[in-house]
Amino acid sequence: MTVIWTQNGIVENDPWLASDNEEAPKFLSLTEALEHAQDNAPFGVVLQPAEDVRELAPVLDRLAIIALTFPAFADGRAFSQAMLLRERLGYNGELRAAGTVLLDQVPLMLRTGFDSFEVTHAPTIARLIEKRLPGIDLHYQPSADQTVAGQSYSWRRTATLNG
Fold it and tell me: Which region, left, alpha or beta, applies to residue 151 given φ > 0 means left and ψ of -120 to 50 means alpha?
């Protein structure tokens, strides 16, 4: 069972989840997305961890969603891709985590700018439905999520001028 979760709960009838409907919007690979960037049909992009997100820069304003994949628990390259998309490229559309998405990673994914999650792990789904996320009391890096950003660094001393 695969569900799409956001901070508002489980998404019912997600148009991006694979369906048999020919009219449903589709995820394209990076190469296909660059070829079809001028089309009017809505599309999203699925990026693999080794792909360079900067190649999407010319077409970012036309993308409804970008799915970044986590092929294994220990592969965190999609965290870096998410920060690049949010902080340096200014992508404001939906950013989805797909693949091996586990509960312990979700708060960190939220901090790096993900806003939807494709989850297949049953215990993770159960905890997400209950909205019982593990907390992060201390962090070492600023957040891409401006609503919970707080201080930029918890450990860095801040310089004061004339003080």
Answer: beta
pLDDT at 152: 55
Specify the DSSP element, H or E, that contains 98. strand 94-99
Beta bridge partners of 119: 3
* pLDDT mean across residues, the chain: 85
pLDDT tens, position by position, 127-147? 999 989 888 766 666 677 665
Report d(CA 55, CA 80) in Å as an integer: 15
> Quick check: helix, strand or coil at residue 124?
helix
Give 23-92 as a DSSP string.
TS-EEE-HHHHHHTTT-SS-EEEEE-TTS-GGGGGGGGGG-SEEEEEESSTT--HHHHHHHIIIIIS---
pLDDT of residue 62: 87
Nearest-angstrom CA–CA distance, 37 and 130: 39
25-60: pLDDT as tens digits = 788 899 888 888 777 777 899 999 999 999 999 889
CB 70 within 8 A of CB 99: yes
- The contacts found for 124-127 with CB under 8 angstroms, 24 or more apart, are 125/1, 125/3, 125/5, 127/103
CA torsion sign for 81, 87, 89, 91 is: positive
